[in-house]
Design brief:
26-stranded antiparallel beta sheet, 6% helix
Length: 1018
Amino acid sequence: MRIQSIRQRMLATTMMGGVALAALAALPVVALVAPTTALAQSQTGSLRIAVTGDNGPLSGATVMVSSPDSLVRRSGVTDADGRVRIANLDPATNYTVAVSAAGYSDFSAQNVAVVTGRDLSLGYVLIGGTGPSNASNVDDIIVTGTSLAAIDVTSATVGTTLTLDVVESLPTGRSYQSYLQLIPGVKPGGGNPSSRSGVNYSDVGGTIGTSTDNVYYLDGVDVTDPATGTFGSNFNSEIIQEQQVIVGGVPAQYAGGSGLISTVVTKSGSNDWHGSLNYYLQNDGLVANDQHRTSGGFSTYDSAVTLGGPLLRDRLWFFGSYQKKHREDEVLDPTTGAVRRSVSNDSELYFGKLTWQVTDDDRLSASFFSDPTEISGSSNPTVLNNRDRTQIQGGDNYRFDYTRTWNDLLVNAYYFKHEGEVSQLAADQSVRDNVTFRGAGSTLAQRSLGGFGSNSETHRDRAEFGVNLEYFLDTSWGTHTFKAGYTNSENTFASNSTVPGGATFTSIALANSGATFLDYTTAASGWTARPFASTDVPRIIAAAATNAGARAALDTDNNGTITTAEVNAYRFTNTAGNPYGNVNAYRAVRSVNAPYSVQSKGQTAYFQDTWTLNQLTVNAGVRAEEWSHYSSGGDKLFTFEWELAPRLSVVYDLFGDGRSKIFGFVGRYYDPIRNDMTNFAGNLSGPITDEQINIAGNWVTFRTRGGAVVPDSVFGPSTKTPYTDEFLIGYSTTFGSDIGLTVSATRRQTRDIFEDYDLAIFSDPNARAIDGDPVDPRASGVAFPGSPFYLPYSYFGFTSAPNANYILGTLAGGERNYTGFEVTLTKFKTDNWNGQLSYTYNDAEGNTNSDGNADFQGDVIFLDPRAPNTYGPQPGNIEHLFKAYGSYDFDFGLQMSGVFNWNSGAIYTPAQSVSGRYFAPQASTTSVFGGVQEYYLLPGGIGSETGPSYATFDMRLKYVKDLPIGEAEFFLDVFNVLDQQSATDEMKLISGDGVYRFQEANAWVAPRRAYLGVRYSF
């Protein structure tokens, strides 16, 4: 099979006189923003090499591929078409490709890049002048090299590959999480940023900037926290050999897909001893004045050592590192500017790896890393000292891996164990009371009495084993690369917690004594927080009927029946026993303390075939997943049966020269339910909390959370796994030898979203319409048979009401829709410089923020996705993102670089706080929709506001000094060079939070700050 255009192009552009040798190869790749793919599990890449002689494709040529960063050299012999595929290569950017053939002088090309999972194509033309092709008397050989902005013309995956050389040439934080901000389309945020359709908002606290849709791989193993969906481990960034970030067109071997996928391959040592020692520091003397009084004095340092080399040359390598990080901050009161407290953050990151090349075809590796961290308190200036807490986190991780190669077959097997702890201890052990006020004007200190309210120790552990296969088959009808794999995972969430004082309170301020239950649960009343909802009334009526004092206080007409109207008319006035003398309203009593653990166990399998025929590549694959959840008693709670996620892509090499392609992808990504929901349904032997309302001095339990008597929740038998369908088209090309362009458009649709339901609100077969005959005594907020909100028990898979507070099921009518466009222009590193420009447009709409967790949309009618005014722009979305970076190397050892980012501001919803959730404003009066009376959301509220747009510009200067042994590097990073302390967020609560008023800026770009560093390496 001949690719004539490659040969013709090279012959036309590289002939020099009558005798020449031309090479078409890739120089070190600093950032491959053309679509990429990665086989995370095998951790290897491949090269497709075509060798051409005077008379066409050259068969019988020997091709040897080697790197000082790889334990093996691999070779092959070109076939009749002059082609050979060299597989199972470790990722590195310093490969040498050596070609030898009879009648030609030996040739080698240096600095060839191999990227995990990619099948890059290279071409070499050997030209013997005017003599015969087997001439042996060639005298002068001229070698020229041409760099291509490498494009994998067999893949439709969109992503970026970063090497340590790239990230260390730019001003970034020293962590793999901060490197994600270099990726086109990734939104600004903390360590778990959102990308494309990944949810970037939480109703809890109205948080923007954290996504629970990402997946994090380390050396092929999923290290995502199984409870939170965020990153589960930290490690020294200097152990990274390669970091790939996939944002679209995800192949079948990967979990996730609705967010980004980060896969890190670690270093393995080499045949020569290499090491480094570095020290970075920063303190308040290197920082400009803070214009917003959010930070005071601080100091930080970061020191690390690495060492790697041969324990047995060509067979056994070692690589290890140790990093110590420390930061100490003075946290200021944002109102007065006074020092509120000092907090410290100390972490130690350990890493060790052994790689044993038993034979040329057998490899064993073992690695260990650990990330213990202690944080003495919060650096958030709005956190009061009495609400502060210390945190201990981190854990040990172990991985064992075996790989065997049989010619074109590769088999990999591994075992991994992750131990992760997150424990918190309240700084103030007094009873917590969240005091509520009617209207604005109260301060945060007035609203936040007592301590944090809980002490907890949690462990999020994961054990996994898996096997993966890759087989390459060359036929007369093209080539096939088959990939298949199976994993078996066990996730354990263990918890032990206590509540200081045995209870937490939500009280009414004395100034608002006498408020009615109706007023206290009505959005238009303007309360700073609301612990009850109108939907709690049926439970309160049932509970009060068994308490003589409460029954007498509510049954004002003495007819022996408590009605909704009587509950709504009740006035809160009692202060007896209140910890701080406020009006008793709500409290949560911890009646039982007990440790417990729950589990989820999963099996996944995938199969895919990449078929390439001439210029066409079709990648067809399917991923299958099954997950079971287990209670603290060991009983199976529910099994999400095998779900099939098909994925199909088509790629066409436009001119057959490996420089331009068009591609399309369609596929489904499932989002398995995490362990936080296993915990919700499976806590049958752990702590028990009684939720109580105070009625005339009587504390009445209206709901019990936890325990086996009335489980907090159960899985509905008909519950489905949430999924996202993706449709993607794109185009990639190169200009000249070192500029790459990629354009892509994406459509995503998320369905079968997960939620918990209160069946008393949505599934009561005895409920009636507000204007029914007779009238429903609950008056409003309840679905009835025939209404658009009613869900019969059969919807959840039941024949009658189950024994549980809530039902975990599929959110009826819930949907999120995303449309995006992205263009990326990359200058690959030649002539001492490289750079990148990218623009991303995001349009995201929907009627739910639920993201595999239990929120409130199944608890109240007005938030139901089918209710009026719930569909709109997705909170947390950022419509426009522009990114640019560049780096230039001077000949005298100085490197200068810069990073510029701009975004148009995050969309948000003006909100009212209900049980810690931020909800869109409700109407001040009830209305009827589908026969159901409710305080529905106001029109135009969802996603109606946009936060401030802002830009950042950072620079790095690095100077390299060669030494007799090794080299010294000196770093100066300057973040926010222009000291533009622009607002990045604003208060979303209509009543404010006691510190900031509605729409007042409450977060800013940090002041200009310098970061100094030095590193010695050999």
